[in-house]
Structures are given as structure tokens and as C-alpha cells.
Amino acid sequence: MSDSAHRETARRSLEDELTRLEAEIGRQRLHREKVCKREEGGRVRTINTSNGPVVVDPDPPRHINTSSILEEDMQYLDEAPGIVSVLPAAGWCAAVGEALDPLVVFVAMDSGKLYGVAVGDDGRVDLVEGNVEDRAGFVRYEKTNKEEEK
Hints:
Blueprint: H1 3-40, E1 45-49, E2 52-56, E3 83-88, E4 92-96, E5 99-109, E6 114-118, E7 138-143
Antiparallel strand pairs: 1-2, 3-5, 4-5, 4-7, 5-6
């Protein structure tokens, strides 16, 4: 064997030994980090990379950008609340003073408010202005027909 062939064989042998030692150091470091984490009571997460196993934080800090950066509460302050849905109010009454006024519908607003509507004094049903909660003496809503609950 020539002198250059011996050098090349020795170089490869040294490179292989260096790779083996680096891998062993990595395993020992990983083991030490796991032991320290366990002693602290934390969790350990390891992922394989092309450079060997790496310990990563299982709960990295997160920052989520929401639309509140542009619009604070997503409320239209220049518009009156709108009606989202009109629901039947069969079997419900509004206790106004001592009387029970039968409700026609419940109105759900986009502001999240829900209120009952009864027939007005003029015989009409006004979904916008017909809120029975605004009537003088309003106490509560009452379910009148108990058979539907069963």
C-alpha cells in the first residue's frame, strides 16, 4: 500500500471516529437535558433532524394575530342593531302588571338581545318598536302551555 493510501485510510478512520463521538456527545447532551427537564417537572419533546436528535420546547410561546388589530370589537357603532331572526312564541306570555299578554314572536337582534313582541294597542305587530319589555309594569316572560315541554 502506498503512503497516500495509508493517509486516506487514516483520514476516513478519523472522520468515522469523529462522527461516532459527535453522535455520542449528542446522545449524552440529550439525556442530560431530559433528566433536567424531568427533575423540573416539565415535559420533553425530541425531534429527529439531519444533525441528530434535538430537544425542543413542547409548548413554545405563541402569538396569534386576530382581526382586532384592525377593528377593536368588530362593532358597527354608526348603525342601529338589526333583526337577525324572528322566532315563534307560541305558548309564551309577558307578565305586565297583573295581566298576561300573549306573545306573537320573539325577535333576535344582531346585538345579542332577544325580546318578545305582542299585538299592539292598534292591533298591529311592530317588530322594531313592539318590545314588551319596554311596557310599563313588565315583570317577566311566562310559559303558559306546559304540555309542549314534555
